Amino acid sequence: MNKILKETGKFLNQRFSLHQDQEREKKVVAEIKKGVEFQGINVWILIFAIMVASVGLNVNSAAVVIGAMLISPLMGPIMGIGLGIGITDLDLIKKAAASLAVMVVLSVLTSWLYFFISPLAEAQSELLSRTTPTIWDVFIGLFGGLAGIVATASKERGNVIPGVAIATALMPPLCTAGYGLAIGNMHYFVGAFYLFSINAVFICFSTLLIVRFLRFKEVTFISPEVKRKVRLFIGVFVVAMVVPSIYIAQNLVRETLFNKKVETYVRKVFNFPTTEVIKYEVIKDGEESELEVSLMGDPLNANTIANLESQLSNYELQGVRLLVKQGPKNLNAADIKSQVLETFLTRNLDSLRSKDAKINYLKKELLTFKSKSIPVDKIAKEAVIFDENIKGLCLMEAVNYSSKGSPTDTVHIALTNFAKEPKTGEIQRFEKWLKQRIESDSVRVLADSD
Fold it and tell me: Burial, 377: exposed, middle or buried (Cβ in 10 Å; 0-12, 13-18, 19+)?
C-alpha cells in the first residue's frame, strides 16, 4: 500500500511540478525587470498600440483590438510589481509602479485624444463590453496572470504570453476609459478603469503567489511583523477589488434571469390566432419595472388583458406592471415595419436556404459540365495533324438505351469527314488516338468521305 501511494505521489509530482522545467531564478528576475523599463521605443509602441486599439473599438473590430493587445508592453510593470513584492525589492516596486502610472496616464490621454477628434461617437459593443466588469473578469485576471508568470519562469515559454495579453485585455479598458472622458460619460470611465484595475491587481497577485511558491530569494530582509502587515494589507486590498465585481455579477445574473422570464411569459401567454406581438420591452424606473407589449391585429378586450396581468405571477414576475399597446394610435410605424420584416425573413428563411442550396448545386453541376466538356475545335485541328486525310470532325456525347428503354452506356460519336476513302486500319488508328485524347473508352468513329 505504501509503495502504491509512493508511486502515485511520484507520478503526480512529475506531472504537476513547477520545478522541473523552471528557468534559473536570476534569468527570470532579469527578464521581468527588463519588461519594467518604459522609455524610448516602448513609449512609442504603447502610443501606437493604444491608437490601434482605439480604432478597433471605435469601428467594432475585435481582430484589430486583439492585434493591438499583442504589441502592448503594459504587462511588464504589473508583473514587476508582483515580483518586487514577492522578493521584497523596494527599488523594483517603485520603478515598476512609476512605469505603470506613466503608462496608464499616457494610454488614457492617447485614447481620449483619438475619441475626441473621431467623428464616430456611438458606443459599439466592443466598447460597452468593457464597462461592466464582473467576478468572471477576476477569474480571467487571476488565472491569466498565473499562466503568464508560470510561463515566464519556465524554460519553454511557447506562445503563452501573447495568449495572456489577449485574455486579460489590459489595453481595451484603458481605451474605453479614454472614450468615457472624451464623451463626458463617467459611468464608462469608472467601469472601464475598474476592469483594468481588476486585471492589473490579479496579474500582480498571481505573480506574487508563484514567486513565493518557487521560493525566490528576498533582496531585503523584512521582520516577521512587517511581513504579516504586508500580507494583511494585500489580502484586504484583493478582497476590496473583488467585492464590487461580485455585486455587479449578481445584478447581471439577476437581470439575465429576469429577461428570460419575460421572454417566456410573452411567448407563452400572448398566443392569439388573430393578434401578434410586434415588440416588447422592459422599462425600469428604480425598483419598479414595466413590461410594454405592442400588438398588431384584433384588439384584446379588457377581460383578456386582465387575465394576462393575472398570469404574471405564474412566471415569477410579481410587481411588474403590464402595459398593452394596441390600435393604430398606440402603435409605432417603425415597430410595425421592423416586425413585418422580421416575420417575412423568419417565414421565408427555409425557402431562401433551399433556393441557395439549389443555386449552389447548379453551380457545381455547371463546373462539372465545363470540366467534362470536350473542346471539339481543338481536337479537330489536332486530328488533321494526326491524319492529313481528315477534313472535318463532328464529336458529340450520346446515351445508349437498351431495348427495354433503360440507359446502358454513354458513347462518344465522332462523325469524321475524310478527303478520300480511308485506308485499311486508318479508322481504327484514329479511334484509338481519339480515345486517348478525350480519355474515354466509349468512342465510335463514323467515316464520311467526299
Answer: exposed
CB-neighbour burial class of residue 137 (10 A; exposed 0-12, middle 13-18, buried 19+): buried
Are the C-beta atoms of 74 and 46 separated by less than 8 Å? yes
Secondary structure element (H or E) that encloses residue 278, with its range: strand 275-285
Same domain, yes or no, for 321 and 195? no
Give the integer Cα–Cα distance in Å for 188 and 198: 15
Of the candidates 412, 415, 416, 414, the one whose C-alpha atom is nearest the C-alpha of residue 441 is 412
Whether 4 is covered by a domain: the verdict is: no
pLDDT digits (tens, 9 = 90+) for 87-125: 888 888 899 999 999 999 999 999 999 999 988 878 888
Domain match, 168 and 192 both:
yes
For the chain, how many residues are written?
450
Closest among 74, 18, 23, 19 to 46, alpha carbons compared:
74
Same domain, 76 and 181: yes
DSSP 337-366: HHHHHHHHHHHHHHHHHHHHHHHHHHHHHH
Please give the residue range of the domain that contains residue 338.
332-373
CA distance 253 to 116: 34
Domain count, the chain: 4
Rounded distance, CA 81 to CA 97, Å? 7
Using CA atoms, how far apart are residues 208 and 320, in angstroms rounded to an integer?
A: 49
Give the model confidence (pLDDT) of 194-243 as tens digits: 999 998 899 889 988 888 888 888 877 677 787 788 888 888 888 888 88
Strand pairing report for 407-418 and 288-297? unpaired
Dihedral sign for Cα 165, 168, 171, 172, please: positive
Interstrand relation of 390-401 and 288-297 (parallel, antiparallel or unpaired): unpaired
The verdict on 138 and 198 lying in the same domain is yes
Contacts of 47 (CB under 8 A, 6+ apart): 106, 110
Confirm whether 1 is domain-assigned.
Answer: no
Query: What is the rounded CA–CA span in Å between residue 207 and residue 209?
Result: 6
Determine the Cα–Cα distance for residues 58 and 300; give it in Å rounded to an integer. Answer: 45
